[in-house]
Design goal:
Elements: H1 6-31, E1 34-37, E2 41-47, E3 50-51, E4 59-62, E5 68-74, E6 78-85, E7 97-106, H2 111-117, E8 123-124, E9 129-130, H3 133-148, H4 160-178, E10 183-194, H5 197-247, H6 250-265, H7 287-293
Antiparallel strand pairs: 1-4, 2-3, 2-5, 6-7, 7-10, 8-9
Helix pairs in contact: 3-4
């Protein structure tokens, strides 16, 4: 009986091990030669330190294995939260707490340029890199402090829309001045605006005074309307009296007197004495008209 030598056994195992290593290498090579970009994201490829200035869109993309690295950036709306800010208002009073969120987007067509120009300014997001995050954060913080100084602390609560619009407009102008068409400020949200407690008390007092003033204005308007009604009523009464007075002509009064005398004369228990020519009836008659008739 003849036994196999150890040398022959090791020679048979070597090709199998080499095959496994080769297969593993090919698998890694193929796996590292492609990458997937999610919808709403843009990728930038970098090969041996050189950035490819043509952006890569969403979907399946290829790259050189081991030599090319892909950077996936978000082209969606990005939120930057500013918390616990304490800027001073125009009246030099400092706010107790100001929380603001600024939302911005970077044009996907300029993502490669953004990566080159602001290489160290992006931030790590949940599912992608946030382009030029530090740039927008720094400029946004400065603009917030500048815009708050344009409004009195007592008016900030009533002028939130003005503050939001001012921040969005000024920040957009600053970013466009550096990189036209690259950034878009989509919106600004004021999440909290708390003034100093003493200022809050002053605000409440001012609001109450404003309400009292408005109530007094209403009372004045009501009084004015009541006066107009009384004037109109008095004018109506005066006009009615004028109409009545104008209708009391001597002829009408004479007619009424005749009717009264006739009624009195029809009473069997009474005697009516009428002076000649009605001379003694001048208190109710127009003497001039009687004389003209005579």
């Amino acid at each position: 009986m003849k036994l196999n030598s150890p040398t022959v056994s090791s020679n048979m195992k070597f090709p199998s091990v080499l095959g496994v290593i080769t297969s593993l290498f090919l698998f890694v090579l193929i796996y590292s030669s492609w990458f997937v970009i999610d919808t709403g994201h843009v990728a930038v490829k970098k090969t041996l330190g050189t950035v490819d200035m043509e952006e890569v869109s969403a979907g399946l993309n290829w790259k050189l294995p081991f030599l090319t690295r892909s950077y996936e950036f978000s082209a969606k709306e990005i939120a930057i939260d500013f918390n616990d800010l304490r800027p001073k208002a125009r009246d030099n009073l400092r706010l107790q707490d100001l929380d603001i969120s600024i939302y911005y987007k970077v044009s996907p067509n300029f993502m490669a340029e953004t990566m080159v120009k602001y290489a160290s300014s992006y931030a790590e997001g949940d599912d992608a890199l946030l382009p030029a995050y530090a740039i927008v954060y720094r400029e946004g913080r400065d603009v917030i402090y500048e815009e708050v100084t344009k409004i009195d602390s007592l008016d900030l609560h009533r002028n939130r829309d003005e503050l939001r619009l001012g921040i969005a407009t000024e920040l957009q102008l600053k970013l466009d001045d550096k990189d036209p068409g690259l950034f878009t400020i989509t919106r600004v949200a004021i999440r909290a605006l708390n003034t100093d407690p003493t200022i809050e008390a002053a605000i409440q007092k001012a609001v109450q005074a404003q309400k009292t003033l408005e109530a007094k204005k209403v009372e004045v308007e009501i009084a004015a309307k009541d006066a107009e009604i009384e004037i109109a009523r008095a004018r109506g009464i005066a006009e009615a009296n004028a109409i009545i007075n104008s209708s009391l002509t001597p002829e009408y009064l004479q007619h009424e007197l005749n009717d009264a005398l006739k009624t009195f004369a029809e009473n069997d228990g009474g005697v009516v004495v009428i002076p000649a020519n009605m001379q003694n009836m001048s208190m109710i008659m127009d003497t001039k008209s009687i004389r003209n008739k005579n």
